[in-house]
Specification:
Distance between the termini: 71 Å
Order of helices and strands: EHEHHHEEEHEHEHEHHEEHHEEEEE
């Protein structure tokens, strides 16, 4: 009779914020579901970027201000895996560790939260929005005056730092009108089983105090990898390869790598260009169909592009000459959208 495999302990490291804890537990739950004999432990700690709220965001991202300490804990074998928001990782990977797997990506879109009390007298003529992102400022400065009710003539962006709960508190107690956050962050916090009751109550109260708009990817593509989790491991940990391969969501992994490749050459993690590659569900094109959205600026050049493609077969011909999706050649595997 074969011997039963012994319980194996894996230690997962993540930042100490409520969101990072929830994301780490998503990975731990996926690992335990694959192999119930695994015993999952967690180690949480603040990152340099959590402690230093004054440093400019671009320099923090470039220097791994939210990820390098966890990568160091991996290199020293204090943890077995590190879980990050993949968009926080610098483009240059360490020599001793790598992103080994990811889960299926959450919704990559951004949310605009506008204080209800600021709308009591109508839409503010000049909308003050909290966000440190160069991408959001580049794309939303033009989009929001068009998309919001008539009356918004100017949109200005102002820096805000800290975890989601701190940013919401800053919005509701300061002089700003609105805040832009990743939808995946809010979704994960709302569904997190281990979120402290007080934190959950504060989150829901803050959301109730706001009107919320989901920002479309066509107008506001996300940062590369937004909504995806990076599961980082040492390169020499061959013993983890099987279990990580079992939970890896290959389509998400490949799309994130392609998104990051658009900006990797710039070495600028806070770049004013959004890139989102999303699967297309349903419709006449089903197998491996994707939409690719790019909007913002790259090396000073304004970019606005939407691409529909099917990796498995040619796309169908446009229904008529005025169809939104057009392309060169009937057998082309990709079609660009043109303005009508």
């Amino acid at each position: 009779m074969p011997r039963a495999r012994r319980t194996r302990t894996l230690t997962i490291g993540a930042r100490a914020s409520a969101l990072s804890r929830a994301q780490a537990r998503l990975v731990g739950d996926a690992l335990a579901a694959h192999d119930p004999r695994l015993r999952i432990r967690y180690r949480f700690a603040d990152a340099a970027g959590d402690r230093d709220l004054a440093a400019p965001l671009p320099s923090l991202l470039r220097g791994g201000g939210f990820t390098s300490e966890l990568s160091g804990a991996l290199a020293d074998s204090r943890i077995d895996l590190a879980v990050h928001s993949w968009k926080d990782l610098p483009f240059v990977e360490p020599t001793t560790t790598h992103v080994a797997a990811t889960l299926e990506r959450a919704d990559p879109r951004d949310l605009l939260l506008v204080r209800r009390d600021r709308l009591a007298q109508g839409v503010p003529r000049a909308l003050r929005v909290l966000s440190c992102s160069a991408r959001r400022a580049a794309n939303l400065s033009e989009f929001l005056p068009w998309a919001l009710p008539a009356g918004v003539g100017q949109v200005s962006f102002h820096p805000v730092r800290g975890d989601i709960l701190r940013r919401l508190h800053t919005l509701l107690t300061g002089n700003a009108d609105a805040l832009v956050v990743a939808k995946a962050a809010i979704d994960r916090l709302l569904s997190a089983a281990g979120l402290p009751a007080t934190a959950g109550a504060h989150l829901r109260a803050a959301l109730d105090a706001c009107r919320i708009m989901v920002l479309p990817l066509a107008a506001n593509p996300a940062a590369p990898a937004q909504g995806a989790l990076a599961i980082e491991a040492r390169r020499d940990r061959a013993d983890l390869a099987e279990v990580l391969a079992a939970i890896n969501h290959t389509p998400t992994f490949s799309r994130v790598l392609e998104e990051r490749a658009h900006l990797a050459a710039t070495r600028d993690e806070d770049h004013p260009l959004g890139v989102s590659i999303v699967p297309i569900e349903g419709g006449p094109v089903r197998t491996a169909a994707e939409a690719v959205f790019q909007r913002g600026r790259l090396q000073g050049v304004r970019i606005e592009a939407a691409l529909l493609r099917d990796r498995a077969r040619p796309l169908p011909r446009p229904a008529h000459r005025e169809a939104v999706w057009t392309g060169e050649g009937a057998e082309s595997g990709a079609r660009r959208r043109i303005a009508l």
